[in-house]
Amino acid sequence: MPADAAKAAVLLFFVVVVQLSIMAQVTILGGHPNLLLVTLVCVALLRGAVFAAIAGFAAGLLVDSGVFATLGFTALLLTLAGYWTGRYGETTGRDRAHAPILSIAVITILYQVAALVLRFMLGQNAPAGAIFAGLVPTVFLNLILIVPVYAFTRRLLRPREWAPREVRLLG
Amino acid sequence: MPRNRSVSAVLGSSVPRPRPQPFPSRSRSALRRRAVVAGLVVLSLILITVSFREPTSGPLHGVQSAGATVLRPFEVAAERVARPFRDLYGYFAGLVHVKRENERLKKQVNELRQNALLGEAARAQNAKFRAQLNFVDSPLFPSDYRAVNTRIIGWRSEFDERVVIAAGRGNGIRQETPVVTSDGLVGSVTQVTGGAALVTLLTDESSAVQARDQDTGAFGLVRHGQGEGSLIVDRVTKDKRVEVGDVIVTAGTRSKLYPSLFPPNIPIGWVTSVGQSDTANFKQIQIQPFVDFSSLDAVTALITNKKIPKAP
């Protein structure tokens, strides 16, 4: 577990730096790929809800510090994204080959909408039109990213041997 | 993997069903999981609240500055690694429009050459008159400013138009320091730490600059338009004259209500369309900024030691 935490910390730190310095200015067909969200989804599917929630919180704080954003803003969104994806990975999505694809598609939409709502509530700039116009390309770009990122993360954090499901007999 | 469920065991049993009991290990795990997430969410909300209400000199912003300082060298390194690839992409992307742009630029060079000759004569005459009148002025761009050239090391999300630059308080940058490129006005510094600063671009929703039509002298307020990255000149009354192609520069005026952060005569853009309706009080003017905000790489922060006059 500590080895996993160290590996995930290094990976997410590197991804945060790449996201802020390089990926944040990449715009393709109005979409903005989010490497950090993609990596967090991979970590969540491989290591579960609690691990991903903590990882998301730490990575979010780092992002908020790096770009002088409202501290806790990205941390909150990534905590919830990591937790929900982790829960999906622990339950319905366990051992499903399509789990990463489905997760990133859903989480990208939820993340963008949640960010928009939160910004609106804080009285910050919330360009709903531009965000919704770029939502489909963003999902598409994240879907492209998740294939290599999941393969890499899977090599780094070996999938857990899940304990067999606990089944109670009725009689 | 053998399953622990047996159909016969379930259906064939006549034993009365016992009262359902929770799984102790499972419920403990679920409780712990929910507690961790709830704790993180509450912590995030507390951080948002404090960060939102706290002044920029507060302790939480100090922690944030420390985080930014730790990240800065890594961001600079990543940006340096990515730059050749971005340049290569920019090179090929530029080839698409290069022929049309070349023709436009040749035409522009001829016009500018003529303007430069006229401008040089006017500048010399202006300097002579100022000396004769002992004219007292606010800091002028670019002569009264020292340039701090710096690189962009981070970009905010797609929600707002802000960038992080690799120079901060240690380089003389303060809050509200104007930021330009060789093409024109970029924005101003809105947050600063020892080694980095946050620049709010002109295209951000929160930006507004007092501007002047260089050709006709009409004053207005440049702010973001409807489309992404578009700019308009607002508050220009209908009796003022503004033509398509006119150059818009910073006005540099300072009023008590709307003080301008920028020195006068920094180029902003050129007018692309002018319209007016019977019902509106002001003209509808769209401008094309000289700065290409989508491909910003390095910028210049303008530092002045000359005292900036303030309205009483």
Secondary structure elements and pairings:
The complex is a heterodimer of chains A (171) and B (312).
Chain A: H1 2-21, H2 35-47, H3 49-66, H4 73-90, H5 99-121, H6 128-133, H7 135-156
Helix pairs in contact in A: 1-2, 1-3, 2-3, 2-4, 2-5, 2-7, 3-4, 4-5, 5-7
Chain B: H1 7-11, H2 24-53, H3 59-95, H4 98-133, E1 146-155, E2 162-165, E3 178-180, E4 185-192, E5 197-201, E6 208-213, E7 219-224, E8 231-234, E9 247-250, E10 267-275, E11 284-289, E12 298-303
Antiparallel strand pairs in B: 1-2, 1-12, 2-5, 3-4, 3-12, 4-5, 6-7, 6-9, 7-8, 8-11, 9-10, 10-11
Poorly predicted regions of chain B are 7-13
Task: Give the CATH superfamily of the domain at 208-295 in chain B.
Answer: Rod shape-determining protein MreC, domain 2
Q: Provide the low-confidence segments of chain A as ranges.
A: none
What's the arrangement of strands in the largest beta sheet of chain B? Answer: 1-2-5-4-3-12
Cα end-to-end separation of chain A: 38 Å
Any idea of the CATH topology of chain A? Answer: Arp2/3 complex 21 kDa subunit ARPC3
Please write the CATH class name of chain A. Mainly Alpha
Q: In sequence order, what are the helices and strands of chain A, one letter per element?
A: HHHHHHH
Helix coverage percent of chain A:
over 70%
The secondary structure category of chain A is mainly alpha
List the chains of the largest interface with their residue counts.
A-B, 52 and 58 residues
Radius of gyration of chain A: 16 Å
Oligomer kind: heterodimer
